[in-house]
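Hey,
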Amino acid sequence: MSYIEKKYLDKIREIFRKELPQWEDYLLELFRKKSITISDNVAKVCAEVNKNVNLILKKYYPEINEIDDKLEIKSHLKFYYDLIDKLTNFIRNIENFQKVDERYFDFIIDFIKDKENLISEKYKAICKQELTAFYDKQSRGNLEKILADKLERRERHFFAMGPLEEEIKKIGKTAGAKHVSIFSAEERKLGKFNIVDNPKSVIHYSILSDDEKALESIGIEIRAYLRSKGYKAELLIVEFSDIVTEREGLIGTIITDAALLPDR
């Protein structure tokens, strides 16, 4: 094993054994309260867990060559991706409906407490099958890309690892928006409408109807995503507008401190 591989493997194990368990303990504390008021705190935890997972996947994992080490890492990552999915679902339900089945609190608690069994029995078996089926020493470079993409994307629109600008547009249109446009906060000249400290981006999205609840629901989806990433985001205004089709529609606006536009 090379020096860099050993160094990165140690870094990964440190994250799995020290960094992430701290957030698991905090989640247990939150969910034992059985209150929807924990939603913002849960979103912050999601952002931290996602940040650690991204660090492993993008920086450290590509340097790992030993198959047993890969199996260990992938098994743990699968647990955390499932955890992120479940926490995101919780946040979305709170944002959309301001309530959640009380049994869901116990479900999350049980899932976290059963981590070791899930990793050693469920996720390890799945990852071993994947590695056995696809590992090919002659095309290692291609395989690593396939495995990384499979872990990263997981066919979700929350916590996908593409540029934030693309993710916001995808989430908005998936939720029902006809158009999603993103501008720099400086370009929009917010003035008195600045309700976010150090705003960097303004998101406008529209629907071709007068259904204000539908418009608000789309804004909540986008806002939840941004908050889950650790950014501030506020749904500012809902206004009537004439769309290109000459049908009356609605436009929603979100202000955020996320830098959604690439440097130009």
